[in-house]
Design a protein that fits this description.
The chain is mainly α. It has helices spanning 2-22, 29-52, 55-78, 84-103. Helix 1 (2-22) runs antiparallel to helix 2, helix 1 (2-22) runs parallel beside helix 3 and helix 3 (55-78) runs antiparallel to helix 4 (84-103). The model has no long low-confidence stretch (mean pLDDT 95). The chain crosses the membrane at residues 33-50, 57-79, 85-103. This is Supressor protein SugE.
Length: 106
């Protein structure tokens, strides 16, 4: 269950980062509220995960899921352009997240 909390927390990190951009500096109320809710859910689920997981495992996976998800959201939602080399490093981030999971013993 802790892994579900952790991955879901990372996905909500993508939600709040995306809605923060859509809020245009917190000037659009609906996106501002979505940002706050997404942030609260992300932090709350991370807190649940670290109750039973080592922080040294949970935090990098949470940030990694959020980072990779935000990159993908930026490309698909906002038309961000990434070079092939950048995509290579995104792949390395994803491989690192998976590697941490499989070598953690959790």
């Amino acid at each position: 269950m802790n892994w579900i909390y952790l991955i879901t927390a990372g996905l909500f990190e993508v939600v709040w980062a995306t809605t923060m951009k859509l809020s245009h500096g917190f000037t659009k109320l609906n996106y501002t509220i979505m940002t706050i809710v997404g942030l609260a859910l992300s932090m709350g689920l991370l807190a649940l995960a670290v109750k039973k997981m080592p922080m040294s495992l949970a935090y990098p996976i949470w940030t990694g899921v959020g980072a990779v998800g935000s990159i993908i959201a930026g490309v698909f939602l906002f038309g961000d352009k990434l070079s092939p080399l950048t995509w290579g490093f995104v792949a390395l981030l994803l491989i690192s997240i998976i590697g941490i999971k499989f070598t953690s013993g959790s």
